[in-house]
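Protein: MarR family transcriptional regulator
Species: Occultella glacieicola
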Amino acid sequence: MHDPRIGDSTGELVDRRGLSDADVEQVVEVMNALRNWHEAAERMSESSRRYMRLNETDMRALRYLIAAHHQKRLVTPGALTDYLGISTASTTKLLDRLEKGGHVRRGPHPSDRRALTVAVTDATRKDARESVGRQHARRFTVAAELTPADRAVVIGFLDALTATEVAEDGEDGATGDR
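Structure follows.
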């Protein structure tokens, strides 16, 4: 329902009082632009997953491992389990799959003989940098070209939009647990 004049012609859901036709039209354009951005981001994400032959959880794991690499942090399977919010059995299957695909390697922990570490391979880190990394760099450039005042408006708008989320239990997304 991007255009309340069509999807909510009676004004039951969307209060348009005080808005001119031009204002409503511009709000609809904002909502359409957001939809277009969301669809573009989804296409990029799907393209990256297809290129790397991975699912969303696999990609989240790799992003986490790449960030840890850049921060020079060791990652254990337990830390990955906690980050992803999945079971240890699922983490083991995920790591088996990623290791078989040449995306990660497991090794001994340098200070705890009972523990393992998990690291992203150089080849996967390079692939991610050349695909997803370049996309993010272009997006950063677009945001950097805004004035500080315009960035503040965009941040405020997106934060307010995020706060409209209602969790399934009816709690406000801004205060509910995620």
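Remarks: Residues 54-120 form a domain with the Arc Repressor Mutant, subunit A fold (CATH 1.10.10.10).
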